[in-house]
Every structure is written in structure tokens, then in C-alpha cells.
Amino acid sequence: MLIRKEDQPVAVREHVQKGAGAVSFRYFLEEKDAAGTGRLFGVLTIPPGASIGPHTHEGEFELYYILSGEGVVTDNDETYVMREGDMMQCKSGNSHAVVNEGTEDLVFVAIILNDKSGEA
């Protein structure tokens, strides 16, 4: 199955997880097509000054892979600057947030997968 960029659904969401501004989500794979593996497969764009507020994942984990720009990520109680090529994982039971304090868009792949590590 090929899904061209222009055919991938896009949503602009305001105040994601009570963050600032708007974030663009381009879904390269929809949950219904993911065979039960997860619920988010997207390329997110956070403009300067916008953010995704702090939130906790339970029974799932999220990955961020930075494509361009720079973001400040809070992972539980630690804060990091992430740049192109960096990856972070927020495991089940943990919390994270991201803010674009830079002057250009922060663009990254975000994937939320189901955590099956506790299954026998």
C-alpha cells in the first residue's frame, strides 16, 4: 500500500495537552491500518512559540525522531534540547512535553505504540 504525502490526512490541533499555540499533525499511517500496534503515526510540526504540554503515557509508549528544527523536551524531571537526528522515548508510566523555543518550525516523527512488555 502506498500513501502519498498529499493523500495523508492533516489536522491542526490547538493547545495540545494544554500546550501553547497550534500543532500540525500529518498522519502517514492511520490507527485503523496499524494492525493494533499503536494509535499515532505522524509527522508533527510545532511552530516557534508553540508546545505540546506535559502528559503521561499509560499502557503505551511514544517515540520522537527530530527531522528539523530544535525543541526543548522535558522527559519526567529531565530537560533536553533535541536537534535533527535525535530520538527520545517516553515509556509507559512516564511523562513528557515539548516546546519550540527556536525561530524555525520543529518537525518530527511521533509514534505511539502499545506497550506489550508486561504480556506473557
Global morphology = globular
What is the H level of CATH, i.e. the homologous superfamily?
A: Jelly Rolls
Largest sheet: 6 strands, antiparallel
Total number of domains? 1
Q: How many DSSP E strands? A: 10
Q: Which architecture name does CATH use?
A: Sandwich
For the record, give the distance between the C-alpha atoms at the N and C termini, rounded to a whole number.
32 Å
Number of helices: 0
Lateral strand order in the biggest sheet: 1-2-3-10-5-8
Tell me the series of helices and strands, N- to C-terminal: EEEEEEEEEE
Do you know the CATH topology?
Jelly Rolls
CATH class descriptor name: Mainly Beta
Q: Beta-strand percentage?
A: over 45%
Quick synopsis:
With 120 residues, the chain is mostly beta strands. It has strands at residues 10-14, 22-27, 38-46, 51-56, 60-68, 70-75, 78-83, 87-90, 95-99, 106-114.
